[in-house]
Amino acid sequence: MTLLDDLNQIKTHIETDLSIKLTDEDFDDSRSEIEHVFFHEACHAAVAHAVPWVRTLEGQAHTAVDELMARFLEMVIGDRHGLFVHSNDGFIRELHQYPVDIQPPDFDFLADMWKFYFWPRRDLDGMAAYALTFMAFDHLVYHILPRVDWEAAQEAGLYRPDSLATEGFIHCSLIEQVLTVADSFYTHLDDLLVLCIAIRRLNTELYFEQAPGSSERFPHIYGPLNLDAVVSVSRLEKDARGRFFLPGGKPEFRFEPDNADLRSSYESADA
Question: Which long-range contacts (CB under 8 A, 24 or more apart) does 253-256 make?
Answer without folding.
Answer: 253/133, 253/136, 253/137, 254/230, 255/228, 255/231
